[in-house]
Amino acid sequence: xxxxxxxxxxxxxxxxxxxxxxxxxxxxxxxxxxxxxxxxxxxxxxxxxxxxxxxxxxxxxxxxxxxxxxxxxxxxxxxxxxxxxxxxxxxxxxxxxxxxxxxxxxxxxxxxxxxxxxxxxxxxxxxxxxxxxxxxxxxxxxxxxxxxxxxxxxxxxxxxxxxxxxxxxxxxxxxxxxxxxxxxxxxxxxxxxxxxxxxxxxxxxxxxxxxxxxxxxxxxxxxxxxxxxxxxxxxxxxxxxxxxxxxxxxxxxxxxxxxxxxxxxxxxxxxxxxx
Length: 275
Description:
single chain; mainly alpha; globular
């Protein structure tokens, strides 16, 4: 079933791409709905076109300057690992250690939950920074916030593919947590009419764009720019923002690939902030 979904997503989402994407390179996480990829053009999503919405609060219609004081995203790829800020349990009294053990604190599921929460919090922090919207020449509204968050979810899922069964489980958890957050924030914005339809369109957009980005990475450099221009920028305006976005994504993909797997699984990473 999933390979059929991938094939359908590739046909619908790779408009203009010369390459194809096999099931083995597609996302390893399964969609919540098995009926996907019917419409993957960014501009078909009614919710993404609502400029009066803001995914994470703040001024939802802020127009951002296209002039930056310096060229962004010039840092070289390097590990994104940061020190582990988890509390040191070694010095706890024995009865507290036993209580934590009894509660399953050190179980695999508990560790995945904590690691996913930290990773998602970092994704949100990077995806809501005003400066990254300026550097990418995007407006800080629902459309921009959803698109930038989706890009970071995609590159995180790409990294987790190489972490085996634990990485696959964390991928599913990351996607589920993100999608639950999306639904909550859509409803918090007061959207009450045709919510299920809009959410389905957002989900279709996400999976289709992921297929397009995966395929574009195997083609000429300009293919990723084109895929981003279609999916993030709605094929509107010039491609300067898409060029900057492709530069950022390639660098972050290289950086997260240099990051130790334990740090990724524990959520101890910080995306590069050179914008």
